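Supplementary Note 2. Why include the ligand at all?

Several targets in our set were suspected to adopt different conformations when bound, so apo predictions alone were not considered sufficient. For every target with a known small-molecule partner we therefore ran a joint prediction. The input for uridine-diphosphate-N-acetylglucosamine is given below.
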Amino acid sequence: MRLLSVFTLLQMNKGKNIIVTGGLGFIGSHTVVSLIENGYNPIIIDDCRNSEPFIHKELEDLTNRQIEWIKDDYRNFSSYRSQLYDTNTVGIIHFAAYMSVGESVSAPLKYYDNNVAGFVELLQEVERTNIKNIVFSSSCTIYGQPDENPVSEHAPVQPPQSPYGATKQMCEQILKDFSNANTAFKSIALRYFNPVGAHHSHQIGELPLSKPNNLMPAIVLAAQGKIEELTIFGDDYNTPDGTCVRDYLHVEDLANAHVRAMDFLLNSSTENYTYLNLGTGKGLSVLEVINSFITENNVDLSYKLGERRPGDVESVYANTSQAEKVLGWKAEKTLKDMVVDVWQWTQYLSKTHGIN
Ligand code: UD1
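The joint prediction is reproduced in token form.
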């Protein structure tokens, strides 16, 4: 892969359609931009249940072109069957899934239905088309607390901590079995570590659609003064400063990895099924992220030390050598890029869309 120049890839990808389910979401929207920059023609399927229509407009503005968008549930194949059967459509990147750990505990069937049953239906439909390439969003949550950090793809998968985590494991297994049984079919599961940040244009990013549980949206709320103070969940872990360690990854790097993954499936994969870690390889503590946010953005925010959050693991960060080797991909953005971009995007949302 590394030997192919950007120009060669642009030529090879030109005019090829890629279906992007959940293409208006956080990672999906950044991937749409990256697909276009790399010569692909993305077709978005998104019913806006966890996104906003204005993201589509922002994407068109940002890329200076029209982007096909089918506003529907990804499970309603009749609305986009013609695109699925179009011979120019060569791949699917599947993002459309629920992703709140807490909600998955209280509404497990909602998660098994949309994330797992819907995925099976999608594969059944794809099996009837000429599409032979699928990229699936998985998560490092499947490693639980690994015995060793940085964690490689060889580490054992741990019993899931939540129905959300279970759906990721089930879908990986389904995809693997499906790809092995259908040898014309190639697929890749991408195990994300902690995606944060926003596009460097600050026109797209993560939307504050529900009460945030993740660290970066919670930091933003505290910096905006919308919560009195941020609670750090535990400072007595066996880590350098006592707070949990994670591998925070800029969403633009993550988006680029999806495009590299699609290039890989189309041009050089000899395997039917591949799974890869996507992270920076660097562990950062909760306190390091908070302090970087304060310093780089020159903002004040209050935080307090609180109890550990049930289900949290102490430390997990990625061994990324496999992604480098297979995809020729390496994360390039820094923690500073992550905290600055997310704060700038917050200002843009407020000024342009009145969303605070
Ligand atoms: C969480 C999920 C994981 C999921 C991922 C998606 C849990 C237990 N894990 O991972 O399954 O794949 O989100 O992005 O929910 N923190 C605070 N204060 C806060 C919020 C978070 O201290 O207000 C800490 C957490 O304790 C953790 C770190 O920040 O140590 C990162 O938390 P978070 O952003 O929720 O990600 P994960 O826990 O890694």
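Residues 108-126 form the longest helix (19 residues). The pocket of uridine-diphosphate-N-acetylglucosamine is lined by residues 101, 139, 141, 165, 194, 213-215, 218, 230-233, 244, 246, 286, 309, 311-312 (CB under 6 Å). Comparable summaries for the other entries are listed in the accompanying table.
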